[in-house]
Give the backbone structure.
Amino acid sequence: MKILMVLDREFPPDIRVENEISALSQAGHEVHIACYTRKNKPEYEKTTRVTIHRKPISPLIYKSSVASLTLPGYFLFWKRFLRKILGNEPFDVLHIHDLPLIGVGRKLKRVFSLKLIADLHENWPAFLEISKHTNTPAGKLLSPIFLWRRYEKRILRYADAIIVVVDEAKARLIGLGIPASRIFVVSNTINLSDVQLTDRPYNGGTMLYYAGGINFHRGLQNVILAMHRSRNKQIRLRILGEGSYKTELVKLTESLSLNDRVIFEGYQPFRIVMDMLSESDFAIISHIKTEHTDSTIPHKLFQYMYAQKPVIASDCLPIKRILEETGSGLIYPSDDIDRLATLLDRLGTTAYNDMGTHGRKAVIEKYNWENDSRVLAAIYREYLPQQVVNH
């Protein structure tokens, strides 16, 4: 099949999209991707696995994306862009990443006789509900959450197949009335061929590791507070990444006199991220428990498990399920700082050594991209050919 993927951000990078492109091209499909650019990247680029179509986006249209359900500019940008690509050459499948542009895809599906896949990386309405930009007075006016919930329930009916990242997300969509037979789980697992780990022990105490975005809902403020309350003063926390809440975390660290124990490494390339992970003793996923975090799964969970690091995590449903199933980590209630401090008290003992071994075994045997890529390939090979294009 000839596939046009649609991604409403810069590409590359995107680990999930890159993995999907690789899997589909290896299965014999021709993959194209449409995305915008704000960085003057080439408007047309062809590699051995994918052809990339880019369209420069103005600052005004880019900022209007937050109001795409109430103002027409952003959807109109995408409709014109995609119509041009689809008018120039034939495609079989429109594979749209994330919820916002599914509505554009629904209209193009009928015009160009395409099959439509909705690839939902996350629970989009719940993501907006906790996002900073949609909780301002202007954000609430221009992007009401109830409109996104209504849009999701209505628009997903037109997708021939829906891909989600975790079982809990599938259950949520079934609860919205979407048939289970059209929903497939292709998780955010790691491609083992892309991960290279080194054995670099850290000799300065017990190193706790976090890599990823830094905002309030990542819950790192709770980790820092728990370190302050914990009796284990040998723990150090290494934070890799950038984000809107970093300044507040730095201030909190300074106010608690933890500057020598909380290390902000900033953004690092993937190789350094893996090297620093290898140096660590434990890894942490401290997300605040919300509807959003109860229906998605981060790549880093499987990176941590594969690196044989016992994972300390808040009780977000998918993470809790996987860690308990595999015996590869410790769970605490996301709002219970004292409980987290108690867990930190016990780190540095040998009691948790087997957790790292269990985590790596689970990734090698089950939670890896080789297995998830088979599900993706089967959607195209077995499921889509049986579907009627227009519902």
